[in-house]
Design brief:
The chain contains four helices and nine strands, in the order αβββββαβββαβα. It is an alpha+beta fold. The chain has one domain. Strands 3, 4, 5, 6, 8 and 9 form a six-stranded antiparallel β-sheet that branches. It has a three-stranded antiparallel β-sheet with strand order 1-2-7, with no helix packed on it. The longest helix is centred in the N-terminal third of the chain and has 22 residues. The radius of gyration is 23 Å and the shape is globular. The N and C termini lie far apart (76 Å).
Length: 201
């Protein structure tokens, strides 16, 4: 009987410890990264100072961890939902490729296309006057960038820091969240305008 009671105590004690341990996990939803970008929709956005097309890529930045995160942002544009986050447009790295003689002509054409497209790679968003936006655990924020910030040959990314102290947004350490063209759902990707074509409002 004593052994039976001892086993029960060990079982319930271990179970209580397990529940307590689960409640302190850093990631809220273990099936997702601790912070990530989620596609929302493709749609019009307000005209911005540098004369971009109104085709917008709308994303949500999701905080899936138990600490707040901080990002550099502007206050947004009047009449437009969400915030205006700083982002960076980055050229896709070229991997090592083994090309046969039969494929060399196709490869050369693609390289010429890549070089021609990169001449039109846009700049990311930076703001002379920016503030800080804080995203609490389990929350998300909506923001948009021009659809042209993602392409076959480049991608966009935003950076954030864990909100550990007042200097977090200034000195980091920072984590970069990339978003690629192929992260857009295929059915939405088919609705992308051609270069120079605007979305209907």
């Amino acid at each position: 009987m004593k052994n039976f009671v001892f086993v029960l105590i060990m079982f319930f004690g271990a179970n209580a410890f397990s529940q307590e341990h689960d409640s302190t996990k850093f990631v809220l939803d273990p099936s997702k990264p601790y912070v990530y970008l989620k596609f929302d929709h493709i749609g019009p956005r307000k005209s911005h100072p540098n004369g971009e097309d109104d085709a917008g890529l709308w994303l949500r930045l999701v905080n899936n961890c138990r600490l707040p995160i901080v990002l550099r942002a502007s206050g947004g544009y009047p009449g437009e939902p969400g915030v205006a986050l700083e982002d960076e447009v980055v050229e896709q790295e070229q991997g090592i490729q083994i090309i046969s003689d039969q494929d060399s002509e196709d490869f050369q054409r693609r390289e010429e296309l890549r070089k021609a497209r990169l001449k039109h790679k846009p700049e990311g968003y930076t703001y002379e006057v920016s503030g800080v936006v804080r995203v609490q655990p389990g929350k998300d924020i909506l923001f948009s960038v021009p659809l042209s910030h993602v392409d076959e040959f480049w991608y966009m990314r935003v950076k954030f820091a864990l909100d550990l102290d007042k200097s977090s947004i200034a000195i980091g350490p920072f984590t970069y969240l990339p978003f690629f063209r192929w992260n857009i759902p295929k059915e939405e990707r088919q609705t992308e305008p051609q270069p120079g074509q605007q979305l209907k409002k």
